[in-house]
């Protein structure tokens, strides 16, 4: 994420300190996330395009080494020349038609080696920031910003992957113990209305974010209403128990095929034991809480539920228009609770627009009018996924946002269930 | 396609005659299309979700029998009770998890049996129209209309499938001999400009068409320009020869994967022999004609070409807005030339908006604002494909339109190359 | 099969006439076999490594053209140069990693073209035999002998493939009408004893046959008993109905895996309709005849049945030793009944050692002591299959033997069920 | 392996002590083998039907718990009831069509937990032996014998699997450091002759071993010669460099297919770096030693080499006949060198008949005459693999033999290369 907001800082010293803080916070957060994991836990990978936590630790470090230290730190010596090859992005490996190493087989280097690698690189980066001239600070900040954003994205993936890997163990181990939480009063089934008309959406410079989130542009909306809160586990359970997964007319053709190929009968991580639904979480297996937002559903499941409920998913411009006029932050990675929470009914809705669960929209991921794929920098890669993906909005309980805005766009294939994905309903007014 | 335009006819007698004419035209056209095929040709199927021509002959007949004759013709006796099962839609078979018969293995019933089946059903339908009371005619017309539209769709598929099956034969047999055609003057590389603003698009009752083509709604457009003609084979050859198929940065991630998995190096049906490009057509292998619209490219190839050319694909609302203000019909199934033609430069562009090649747009196939999936009738099925498909506009040289309008929407997966698919470029003004 | 028996003929004229007779008989038999098939039937192929009957017609002709006419007939002009490539052995195509044409898509050349091809080649071969000098006759006879043996092998395959293709049609069409047959008295459940000791087995020159059937060698046998007739459908039905297909302890590990992967619950071509077992035959679907030899069972099924019955399959040397001392010929292709028959109780057993069903043995296919793979000629290929195959003995009702002996060895993968394969039991004395 | 040799011991006390010794030796050896492995190493699994070392540790313990302690030790409390399900044989899981846990994902229980599990079970077994009455000792010895043999088999697998897992790591880590070894003088290229005739082979009671190694029976052999030592790396390198992997005529049809599907160009673990062949070993990557026996070749490669060399593989009866009259033990697991060694030329050959490498024979794995599959005990399982496997003889450098004899039979699929498999040549005299 380009560091545009740094521009506002007064002095070079402030900028330097801010950069150090952001770097340390991102790196420290990753270290904190692997705290509960044993060396063996760090090795497990349960989905083909996932990665073991150990690899996330090393690969994020590799990006700092190869895009910040090697280009900008004179005389920098790589921690271990083998690591330059071993931990590079797999996409890049795949490109050359040379298979990369099978990540889950890298028992060596050991966890201790990887942690030393992190320390080595952390020290070198801090030294580099310290030594940079004021003139060098700009370009350094830009590249550090990318690597920090990259590290944050991997934090979300790390928790997403370890959750599934633990789920694959019949013992259903917990990632950590659940914190004590105050009781909540779930918000009512309210709706927010909008009169439609010409609206403006999309990121505008200098707001922080990615290129595919702009340019800002006008969209014409018909009048609509948006649910004030995400669909809850209780509501989704009603759909499951009404036979929604067996009613073909509710499903997209591709969704029905996925449902049958994969044997879906409920959201991922739901299981029935002794007649009662349980949900697997990073805190282990828990009784289903009907007030929580439903999570780990594919777009197909969200879409089928909406059809069953006589509603529809919101278009992304509808979602953004409502989000732009409220300030509703839920539970994000920084909050420390690693599961969607039953919302707290405070003030008028909408609630939990940002946080708890990524929210599927009815919009396919595509370029905004006037969008041009940027050259060169890593972010440009988003433009390469503008087919076969659906847009999600809002961020989840394991998303490490620094500066999310209503314009933030995420995208996934419609059959994805691995991420913390939920949805809220909409309808024509 | 609902028979809404029938409402305009004056008398019952007119309606009856019109119905007979439309029925006979559709059925006769299919018979005409299999004219050049031997019993053996009628058996071949080269793509898994394709079908042999013989099955198209029988299955279209089956729909008249099961949705028109059996429900509405008292005392009707099915031609052969086995056929009711044998020729039903495969989707329906698949639904019950019972494999349907493998279509390409149905050497029995013989071709002669199938032709008798067609005659039997044709006679019974004409008799039914003749005997229907004025009150029955409405509902009959509605169901006949659906079965006629279905037969027409299968005409396009039949030619699409037989083309690929012949291509799979190293002898490259021709479906028929090419007609003599007058020389054409290819249209210039012109562009049509539009100032943008709020426009109205989508089908409006009582215009004929499908439910997913409406409701009519407003869209805001930025100023843009649309190419006056589709991209030509010559232009696409330049892309191929410039190494476009090897330049990863031009391709969607999924497109690049498809390209590598399938080994694409040029459009489907292109091959180089003795240094010269040839294109396989329903008239056999022909030297590449640089003036013809390029055809049988996937959306990924169209999108990559546009990026290479510094342009983009048009949004479907842009395409429709231009199409609505001109009357540009190219080569359709009724025209009798079964290959895209180099356009004729007549009057001001745009040219060939309708006909010759289906034109990919940048728009993912999704519901229009206010769209509700209809219940009951066959067309409802379109709403089931509103994921992972891209919109195409305009129709091709093997599309049997009766009443196409600028609002006509078609959709395919972005990796499809089997249909007669091309594209035209657009750019921001 | 080398034409060693020709050596016994007295004069050149006799040799010439004998060669003509054998050629015409083999070619005429193939033509006769496709008599009941329509052009559409000739196109169907239901197993990946099968072939349509049309291709068998053409490919056998191709071998005469390429290994007899082109090398030995001066001035011979190929019927169609394209055919040389189109109809060559697929193994050869595969070798070059170039996919051969997909056989089932060759609607062109037409059936009429193929029949003309056969006539052209037949005429040219007869002319060649007629014109050959006495000195040329030897080498010509050798190559013709190979091509004739090849044609005969393809006769068995043609019937095997068309049977499966018709089975794949829900209408279960019959290849031909069943002939009237006299009633038979099934033979009793007798056993033939052997005292064991050193025996000699294997083909000895100049007996006709293949290289892998020799050299003749000594084997030591323990005393054993061999069933006087093959296992019958009635006996096998008892195994099926006793739950044999569900009892894992009866099955080889690989067999159990095959059973589960393929969903075997009975022999191929068995199906239960309205409570009664029916068997699909070249005469269409027939009620199961309990007296007939069971057929279309894999080696795994034969082995499991034997274990269930407290017996075992015979070793091939045991089978051959018994076969060598009796003269028991059953139903072969020449007999004209294309299905295993319930044996006729005539004289002392064993019965049906040769004919009706190929009989699985417990012996893996491997080289005899002293075996050396020959160079050059087509038969050498048998030595390439000496892994993962089991030996079968005796020949089936669709095997076109000229000179079978007790030493005749056939081999198939243990999971094969497509051929007319049955078995008889053995036990230690 | 049934404990038949215990019968010879004089007193109950001797029997008890012998049992304790064998138990402790087997259990201690496994613990010793995982000594060099980190917790992360214990997690890795690189072949689908392999297992992580941690699972081998737990599963072998599970067999003692479920077949010895639970049935025979009154009042025994399982260490952890979950483990009874978690560590059971996968074949058993598969049988119920319920997928077992994915072994490589079991990061929990931790290594420390597993080691505690081993200690718990070890203590309970020793206590049980100590407390058993003299009458109980027989049945206890029988079941302990099976579990000890099972543990030993897993020792060989553990090293086989970890070797491949380390090979899959681009860093090519070593399992342990190589010991200092005295130089050897490789044995000459000698041959051992045999006159053939009737010989006796197979295990005879009360010699120790498995049921499929008997009964003892007579076989007739033609005169033959057997190589005095296994084929060496140097000899095999000559085959590789002469293009043996590209010459189709040398290969079985299935072997050629495997070669092409897998891309074989040399034995497993061979790689060329900077023009020189290196071989990956449990001691890391080493320069190829031409005097060592070649290892990790499939039967297809052994067979192709033999054909290229104008020889053949020995029949298993030939191998056994020669092995029975000499006393040639090479390098086994107990020896402590975990790689095939270049033999030492001491006395007359044959050399290394037992140890260093398993030796492929030309014999398919099948039942001996008179063989009957036993009921009940675990060993019975060998009879289930008597299809699609080839016999190996002799044992390898990681085989933990207690009482191998010339009759010892091992079997693998002909495409296996994972085990320490080599071969020696034979020829007809």
TrEMBL record, chains A, B, C, D:
Q: Which residues form the Sulfatase-modifying factor enzyme-like domain?
A: 189-336, 348-426
Q: Which InterPro entries match?
A: CTDL_fold (IPR016187), DinB-like (IPR024775), DinB/YfiT-like (IPR034660), EgtB (IPR017806), Sulfatase_Mod_Factor_Kinase (IPR051043), SUMF_dom (IPR005532), SUMF_sf (IPR042095)
* Name by which UniProt lists this protein: Ergothioneine biosynthesis protein EgtB
Pathway listed: Amino-acid biosynthesis; ergothioneine biosynthesis
The entry's keywords? Iron, Oxidoreductase
Taxon lineage: Bacteria, Pseudomonadati, Pseudomonadota, Alphaproteobacteria, Rhodospirillales
Instruction: Give all residue intervals belonging to the DinB-like domain.
Output: 23-155
Q: What Gene Ontology terms for biological process does this UniProt record contain?
A: ergothioneine biosynthetic process
| Superkingdom to which the source organism belongs | Bacteria
- Give yes or no: UniProt keyword Iron: yes
Kindly give the Pfam families that the UniProt entry links to this protein. DinB_2, FGE-sulfatase
């Amino acid at each position: 994420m380009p560091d545009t907001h740094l521009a506002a800082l007064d002095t070079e010293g402030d900028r330097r300190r801010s950069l150090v803080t952001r770097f340390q916070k991102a790196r420290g957060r990753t270290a904190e996330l692997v705290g509960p994991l044993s060396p063996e836990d760090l090795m497990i990978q349960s989905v083909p395009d996932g990665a073991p936590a150990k690899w996330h630790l090393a690969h994020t470090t590799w990006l700092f080494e190869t895009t910040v230290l090697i280009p900008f730190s004179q005389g920098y010596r790589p921690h271990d020349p083998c690591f330059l090859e071993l931990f590079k992005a797999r996409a890049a490996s795949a490109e050359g038609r040379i298979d990369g190493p099978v990540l889950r087989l890298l028992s060596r280097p050991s966890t201790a080696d990887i942690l030393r690698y992190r320390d080595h690189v952390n020290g070198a980066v801090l030294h580099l920031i310290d030594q940079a001239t004021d003139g060098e600070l700009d370009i350094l900040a830009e590249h550090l910003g990318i690597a920090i954003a990259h590290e944050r994205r991997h934090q979300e993936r790390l928790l997403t992957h370890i959750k599934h890997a633990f789920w694959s163990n019949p013992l259903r181990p917990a990632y950590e113990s659940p914190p004590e939480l105050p009781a909540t009063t779930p918000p009512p089934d309210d709706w927010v209305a909008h009169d439609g008309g010409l609206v403006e959406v999309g990121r505008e410079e200098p707001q922080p974010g990615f290129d595919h989130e702009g340019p800002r542009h006008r969209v014409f909306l018909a009048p609509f209403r948006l649910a004030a809160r995400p669909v809850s586990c209780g509501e989704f359970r009603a759909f499951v128990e009404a036979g929604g997964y067996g009613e073909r007319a509710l499903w997209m053709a591709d969704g029905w095929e996925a449902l049958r190929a994969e044997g879906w009968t409920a959201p991922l991580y739901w299981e029935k034991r002794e007649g009662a639904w349980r949900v697997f979480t990073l805190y282990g297996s828990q009784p289903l809480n009907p007030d929580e937002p439903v999570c780990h559903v594919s777009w197909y499941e969200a879409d089928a539920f909406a059809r069953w409920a006589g509603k529809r998913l919101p278009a992304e411009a509808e979602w953004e228009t409502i989000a732009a006029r409220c300030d509703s932050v839920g539970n994000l990675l920084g909050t420390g609770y690693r599961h969607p929470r039953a919302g707290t009914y405070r003030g008028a809705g909408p609630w939990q627009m940002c946080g708890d669960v990524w929210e599927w929209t009815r919009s396919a991921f595509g370029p905004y009018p006037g969008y041009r794929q940027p050259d060169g920098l890593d972010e440009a890669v988003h433009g390469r996924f503008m087919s076969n993906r659906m847009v999600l909005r809002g961020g989840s309980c394991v998303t490490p946002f620094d500066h999310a805005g209503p314009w933030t766009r995420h995208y996934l294939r419609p059959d994805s269930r691995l991420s913390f994905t939920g949805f809220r309903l909409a309808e024509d007014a």
